[in-house]
Amino acid sequence: MRYLSALLLLLTVISCTKDSNNNVEPLNSSFFWVPDLIADRGDQKVDLVLRDPRPYTSYSSEPATPDHFEVYFGTDSSSLKLFKNVKVGTDRITLSKLNNNVPYYFFVKTFKGTKFYNSDTVSAVPSAPLEITEVFPGEMLQDPSKFSFNNTFVASQINPGIKVRNRTTNSEVKNESNASAPNWAHLVNKLAFYKTIKEGNTVFTDKIMVYDADANTEVLVWDVDHKEYAVSGMAFSADDKALLINTLEKRADKAFMNMWKIDLTTKVKTSIADFGALNFHPTGRISAGIDGKSVLIDGDYNLPPTWRKRGGIYRYNFETKQLQQLINGRGHGGSFAESPDGAHIAFVSNWTGKDEVWLYNTTTKGLKQLTNSSGQPFYYTNADFKWGGTDLLINLYSNNSHSLYKIKL
Which of 17, 126, 213, 358 is 20 to 30 A distant from 350 in Cα terms? Predict the structure, then answer.
């Protein structure tokens, strides 16, 4: 909504808006607020929540109150139909008798006189609720935590460092100060992390380490020259034999967005992507593709001839050097992970107006909304995924603590 608010302020400055035929009309010096939307899915229904943005949005001047709303919905995001007119002050609208497991899209047209603004579009997929269960009931952690592949160890991010605990012996096996970004391997109890250094008020990645929790040993993988490289993302390869690392490299007053593959045995560092040459701008998060020759990455792809940005989650094949968009749109947070059989990708998106867990089918290209956080104590913004067979496991924040939860698909 903050982007929409900025847009409304801009429209006020240039004093224009668009009519129903997309023509520009003059606007007077006032502007009016548009509701924030949240789509709460249910069984064969969606509750559309309309929120007045004024209590939590900064304006240069107080916006006017609109006259009324028109609510639109449908299954084709490019052609939504009018559902009903509602009064300002309406905070919830229920759309029932919808088809389960079908994506629906919603937006609100807000009127003041003959002028209108459109809200952001939100989406939800009606379905019967899925059960989310705690894997280790009662084992709640106060710091953001991630469990190892077989759940023997848990790594917690503490400011400014990392602690690793053996859950079997309930003993602390590692306490690393000035460290961040703990990332477990897929098939072994190995943890990659950054060692950091602070210069002035800026924290840099200084070293990339791998800690073997079973052997209680660690090795230096890359001694990073932080004046040349800024590390922005890291993941183990599918076979855990290498690290995949995103960097912003500074050379001759130019910046290069690269991805590197570092062999954990030989420590040989090989460039596998020049994203700048592809006009692709990574946002930092990466996850190994299950095929062993690709990586999942989110970012913006600037495509000719319009050079319009296409945000989303992509698959980059580092053998063919090709990018393929899998999941369209911005608004993705948390991690994303491909299932062991390659059939699904779990990810977080705020398409509903708040962060929820979604599932992408790599064969049908279909999307399934797994969670609905309204009325639940779960926060999915920084959810971290791993797979336990066909079950999706999520390192999750809930009830002021962190734990591991399971969604049975």
Answer: 17
4 sits in the region (left: phi over 0; alpha: psi -120 to 50; else beta) called alpha
Q: Mind giving me the DSSP string for 270-333?
A: EEEEETTTTTEEEEEEEEE-TTSSEEEEEEEEEETTTTEEEEEEEEEETTTTEEEEEEESS-EE
Which domains, ranges and CATH numbers included, belong to the chain?
A: 2-124 (2.60.40.10), 132-408 (2.120.10.30)
- What is this structure's pTM? 0.85
Q: What percent of the chain has pLDDT over 90?
A: 64
Question: Alpha-carbon distance 135 to 74, whole Å?
Answer: 37
Tokens 């969604």 correspond to what residue? 407
pLDDT tens-digit readout, 218-232: 999 999 998 899 998
Q: Is the distance from CB of 149 to CB of 186 less than 8 angstroms?
A: yes
For residue 126, CA distances in Å to 42, 109, 242, 279 come to 5, 23, 40, 37
> Tokens 């063919």 sit at which residue?
320
Is the distance from CB of 202 to CB of 254 less than 8 angstroms? Answer: no
